[in-house]
Amino acid sequence: MQKYRVAVVGAGAAGLLAAIRAADRGLSVVVIDKMSLPGRKLMITGKGRCNITNAAEIDEFIMQVFPDGRFLYPAFKKFFSYEIIGLLQECGVESVLERGGRYFPKTEKAADVVGALYKRALENGVKFIFNAKVNNVHYNNNEVSGLDYLAGGRSRTIDVSNVIICTGGKSYAATGSSGDGYIFAREAGHKIVNLFPVLVPLETKDMHASDMQGLTLKNINAKVLINGELKHEEFGDLLFTHFGLSGPVILTVSRSVVYALDKREEVEILIDFKPALDFDKLDARLMRDLNENGKKKIGNLFRKLLPQKAIPVFLNILNLDENKLANQISAVERKAIVQLLKNMSFTITRHRGFKEAVITAGGVCLTEINPKTMQSKLKKGLYFAGEVLNLDANTGGYNLQIAFSTGWLAADSI
């Protein structure tokens, strides 16, 4: 029977950091992953560029985390953005700071981050077992005593006293994060807080979004109205798709939308195409354009206000003939144009599923985990790190840092 001091289940961001730290401390470590390579989900983060972390200080960082970022204070004080940037630099991966405090590898290749961490773990003596599925964790008097895994059609047992569950959530299941960690947690007696896909695209009721499919808007403002009340507002980039809305600004507001839809509440998103101008200033600009270009067709004049792909949609909603001359536009029609530019409305009917969600909200209940160690309060020697926990954050490198920090702390606590 194989014997190790630490078994890490999952070779993603949390698992790699846990393995590196445990091996740094001289512990014998094995990492078991059901995929054929490490860091499969890490490879696709940041559209393949890997948004490593964020430059925000701890208190600001905490505010980006749900449902209770304060749980992460011990983990962040032990290992934070400065440390992961430094560790990667030691491994030969330089980082660059971009807009929004986002750190990316200088090479813009997530594969370089994965490769560096994997190499570091191997150099530290970590044993990796791929294409292997952990079936269960064994306990003796509420203490971890071993685990079983299936590989090559054979069931095998490991003698181990510490297991760190780093299996991720349920999003992007094709990368290996299919929810196994929640099964292990339940078998140990842990409560799993309701699971939802978040940082996820949204489906709309009408066809306006699909009519603009493929169009990306830069620097727009999005407002989320739930039962008619403003609940969330974000500034950023948006993408229209065949089913509705996506892009960074939509992913950020999606968390509040997902929970509202679960409660069967009415959700509406208002898009402001011209956030730099208030209603009166935009109205004055449009009035000037109409007066100065009286003989131009309104369809042509719209090119100064909108991307080409959006023009037919606006004309349809406003019930305007594209050949109508600018000097024929009434004051009522002008006000309607401004209103639509400032508040184009989309009724949200559904959110997309886990296959398209960046992360999973919900997970192992935080009150059952010691935040100073990441160890289970129910089973000695059982630890949880990363997305399997009931922690999720906005886009911008926050979620990866949660994985790095909790993985490091779990290993450091053994």
Gist?
The protein has helices at 13-24, 58-62, 73-78, 81-90, 110-123, 180-187, 208-211, 248-262, 279-292, 298-301, 311-318, 331-342, 398-412; strands at residues 2-9, 29-32, 53-54, 65-66, 95-98, 102-105, 127-129, 132-140, 143-151, 154-165, 192-198, 202-204, 216-226, 229-240, 244-246, 267-272, 344-351, 359-364, 382-384, 392-393.
How would you characterize the overall build of this protein?
It is built from 13 helices and 20 strands. It is of the alpha+beta class and 414 residues long. The protein folds into two domains: 2-197 and 361-412, 3-Layer(bba) Sandwich (FAD/NAD(P)-binding domain); 201-352, no CATH class. Helix 1 (13-24) links the parallel strand 1 (2-9) and strand 2. Helix 1 (13-24) runs parallel beside helix 5 (110-123), helix 1 packs parallel to helix 13 and helix 9 crosses helix 12 (331-342). The longest helix has 15 residues, at 248-262. The relative contact order is 0.19.
What Rg, in angstroms, do the CA atoms define? 25 Å
| Percent in strands | 25-35%
Cα distance, first to last residue?
Answer: 22 Å
- The CATH class of the largest domain, by name, is Alpha Beta
Query: Please, what is the average pLDDT?
Result: 96
Q: What is the CATH T-level topology of the largest domain?
A: FAD/NAD(P)-binding domain
Number of helices: 13
Characterize the main sheet.
7 strands, mixed
- For this entry, what is the oligomeric state of its chains? single chain
Shape designation: elongated
Q: What structural class do you assign from the helix and strand content?
A: alpha+beta
Total number of beta strands? 20
